[in-house]
Amino acid sequence: MTLRYLALGDSYTIGESVAEADRFPNQLSALLAEEGVPVKVTIIARTGWTTDELWQGIQAQTVEPPYDLVSLLIGVNNQYRGRSLAEYREGFVFLLNKAIEYAGGDVDRVLVFSIPDWGVTPFASGRDAEKIAGEIDAFNQVNLEESQKAGAHYVDVTPVSRQALTDQSLIASDGLHPSGSMYAQWASLALPIALDILK
After folding, report:
1. Which range marks the domain in which residue 49 is found?
2. What is the number of domains present in the chain?
3. What are the tens digits of pLDDT across the range 152-170?
């Protein structure tokens, strides 16, 4: 029986500038298949989406719960556009509750990913990397707190993203987004949790 995985997010979930097979939900699915757990992936994500735009995007799609696994990675565009933490918290909590709903009301089937730090990328050259890092950390504090409060699983990919400062192979050709090899690390971090959920 093939299990169903719904991945919700922005450019980091749709895998801007990488091949479809290199997107982290697809790589996670491939790793699960190797473990004898076949999973069909559905992605609702678009580059540039904020929390409210993700919700608009979800409403424009046909969502067919319950899903066996639901992931949520959202917030970088709220930070990039200078939106407030309070607004982010409200939007994130709303989307987290939707993710739980799509997982058949089972919070144990929800995986929240932290926001990576784009301040270390070539795209951010000339910007205040320390300020960006501080804001990303503050946004991640919000999504971590709310994930823990709800009881959702949490995958912290931010430290991996910061390795791109000294390892250009972790950055896609656009100089901003993660490469397939960075997404492979994200998928590896998520794999034990996903296996635990799905087995």
Report:
1. 3-198
2. 1
3. 999 999 999 999 999 999 9
